[in-house]
């Protein structure tokens, strides 16, 4: 073999190996970056830029931090409604134990409500937010981009083993998988409902509300009221 041909082969080999290791390193860096993403639901601390509300119910106080960076229109809608007294005196009209508690409908039927924008507004799905236990999420009309005033708090205390496997197959962030395993939640609602807040105090109240007697549609036998929502910061 001529010396020139040998040098060409060596150079090609070096380029191929260099490309391989570059792609491998890039993939590793991407994985580390994804794993190190901030998941604000995993801390009870109210971080810079977040908002805080106090939801006073007929069964106790629930404090929730909100995420305007990840869901700006949704948080603005909720904050404005709260400050204007829109939610005062409404009920949790749909309660499903080991699932969620839902409110924010002036009609109390699940068919009412309006946004501050005068119409339905779009979903704000963030890769940083998930339907973990304690998540505050928007209820919708069963299809995308139909948000108004209704919301729910995830109350489910566990995630099935098969669901955990599905999360792993879907390449969920490991920190989120661990949070689902440790605390529970409703991962099948991810990507379908906008998460915009997280309970940081009062999950015992959420559990108490979830345990009230209801009819076959989840309507409580006795009203559970949202007395007032106060914006604390």
From TrEMBL:
Keyword match Endoplasmic reticulum: no
GO molecular function terms noted in the UniProt entry: peptidyl-prolyl cis-trans isomerase activity
A UniProt-annotated Pfam family: Pro_isomerase
Reaction(s) the record says it catalyses: [protein]-peptidylproline (omega=180) = [protein]-peptidylproline (omega=0)
Coiled-coil parts of chain: none
Enzyme class: isomerase
PPIase cyclophilin-type domain residues: 56-231
Gene Ontology biological-process annotations: protein folding
Keyword check for Transmembrane helix: yes
Alphabetized UniProt keyword annotations: Isomerase, Membrane, Rotamase, Transmembrane, Transmembrane helix
Transmembrane segments annotated in the record for this chain: 6-24
Gene3D superfamilies attached to this UniProt entry: Cyclophilin-like
E.C. number(s) listed in UniProt: 5.2.1.8
Organism domain of life: Bacteria
Physiological role: PPIases accelerate the folding of proteins. It catalyzes the cis-trans isomerization of proline imidic peptide bonds in oligopeptides.
Family: Belongs to the cyclophilin-type PPIase family.
Name this protein carries in UniProt: Peptidyl-prolyl cis-trans isomerase
Originating species: Robertmurraya siralis
